[in-house]
Write a structure and sequence with these properties.
The protein is an alpha/beta fold and 334 residues long. Helix content is 45%, strand content 12%. Bound molecules: fructose -6-phosphate.
Length: 334
């Protein structure tokens, strides 16, 4: 689907264009051919907005993939990633130093990484046969659906799974948005419930990446504090801190799934009950009749829109990430 009508200077236009970006680009044919080779594992490199697609793929396939999928959001490459592994380096700008560092380490180990970027140093360093170019001028975090459109088919090929029809999913997202009206689920209504609060997004299984993405979008678009946690793990630590939630205005938001196991369902309900008894109300978000990937993307799209509503209420420029840019400038001088 064409993405030419999306205004790449407007976060609102980019977030609203999410459904049409899903499936709008493809990995290069050469990259897909190379991905058919046998591999021992898949290691995805990337930071911030460029890391989310890898986390989505990992969450989606962790139980089904015959080989490990690991995501590295750091400078170093794990020791076990040897020349029999496949590495995918993702950086929208192509200039992120952590990603470049792990990429260089992969080359040293005799790996020819797959590269996904819109340009930058990573594009210059990439093997042209393993390079897939993204459309330029997007904010990296807004380019998530484009990155996923390249990365998911690549990973599906590497792990020997059938390719997902992303165009169809994009259409479903666009249709579902029409249902997020004033019945309590509209992004504006959710934003109002979150007003003055610190959202704590809680996800489990395949929805971990969506909870993490929501936290990041609220931080970067709305410029307010936000956190995420994971179940069942949070039941073994975070639950003890609920006494603080009310006094610090922390509002738990559970990302629910029709695919959650009976044990996880019971855990979420019990956790929510304990929180309620301690004076903490929580929000439960759900998207019915959707596959696991559709659920992940529905939660992400919906909460991306919520982050924009909060940005509007806060009166901040959603697109600008001045502090990230400043930090990158300082580090580049060192
Ligand atoms: C900005 C954003 C950031 C960047 C991150 C890494 O929109 O989402 O989180 O993604 O600073 O930069 P890139 O994606 O260029 O490797």
């Amino acid at each position: 689907m064409a993405i030419d009508n999306i205004d790449r200077t407007s976060m609102s236009s980019m977030v609203n264009g999410f459904p049409q970006m899903v499936g709008a680009v493809n990995p290069s044919t050469d990259a897909i051919e190379s991905a058919k080779d046998t591999t021992k594992g898949v290691c995805v490199l990337g930071m911030g907005g460029s890391a989310i697609a890898g986390e989505i793929c990992k969450g989606l396939y962790s139980e089904r993939a015959p080989i490990p999928i690991t995501c590295v959001r750091d400078y170093a490459l794990p020791k076990y990633v040897d020349s029999d592994w496949s590495v995918i380096a993702v950086s929208y700008s192509g200039n992120t130093e952590e990603t470049l560092s792990a990429f260089a380490e992969a080359i040293k180990r005799g790996i020819i990484p797959f590269v996904i970027s819109s340009g930058g140093k990573l594009m210059d360093l990439a093997d042209p046969k393993r390079f897939s170019r993204l459309p330029d001028s997007f904010q990296p975090r807004a380019a998530l659906p484009l990155i996923l459109s390249v990365e998911l088919p690549l990973i599906e090929t590497l792990i020997g799974q059938n390719r997902t029809n992303l165009i169809q999913i994009g259409k479903k997202l666009a249709d579902r948005k029409k249902e997020w009206t004033d019945n309590g689920s509209s992004p504006n209504q959710i934003a109002r419930r979150l007003s003055g609060k610190i959202p704590l997004f809680i996800g489990s299984g395949h929805l971990q990446a969506a909870a993490y993405r929501a936290k990041c979008q609220i931080n970067e678009n709305a410029k307010i504090a936000s956190f995420h946690s994971i179940l069942p793990e949070a039941n073994h630590n975070e639950i003890e801190s609920v006494g603080w939630f009310a006094s610090k205005d922390i509002l738990p938001v559970f990302l629910r799934s029709e695919h959650e196991s009976p044990r996880i369902r019971k855990r979420i309900e019990a956790t929510s009950e304990i929180y309620f008894d301690e004076g903490v109300d929580s929000i439960h978000l759900n998207h019915a009749n959707a596959s696991k990937l559709e659920e992940i993307l529905l939660h992400i799209y919906h909460l991306d829109l919520v982050s924009m509503e909060i940005a509007l209420k806060q009166g901040v420029d959603a697109v600008a990430v001045e502090r990230i840019a400043r930090l990158k400038r300082i580090l580049s001088q060192a």
